[in-house]
Amino acid sequence: MYAIVRAGGRQEKVSVGDVLTIDKVQGNGNAGDTVELAPVLLVDGSTVTTDAETLSRAVVRAKVMAAVKGPKIIIQKYKNKTGYKKRQGHRQPLTKVKITAIDA
């Protein structure tokens, strides 16, 4: 059994035991907490569930493992002949989670 879940701004294919990195979880983002993800599609063998009413009752539970940071992204601005240059870095906050249960 696997599910397609909405995690942050993306959709991820998950099954029980998978470890994935998603956008930062607001609220309970401490290690050991449980998070519920909204399923978009459920597949159980040959049965595919896409009905919104059935999916509203379904839940995918995940355990927060750690808060991590994404890769460093360098932002550079430069204007020719004026001596203006600016350099800035960014690391996106992420959350590493482990899928513990898919309840249909």
UniProtKB/TrEMBL annotation:
InterPro entries: bL21-like, bL21-like_sf, Ribosomal_bL21, Ribosomal_bL21_CS. Keywords: Ribonucleoprotein, Ribosomal protein, RNA-binding, rRNA-binding. SUPFAM superfamilies: L21p-like. The keyword rRNA-binding applies. The keyword RNA-binding applies. This is Large ribosomal subunit protein bL21. This protein binds to 23S rRNA in the presence of protein L20. It comes from Ornithinimicrobium kibberense. Belongs to the bacterial ribosomal protein bL21 family. Part of the 50S ribosomal subunit. Contacts protein L20.
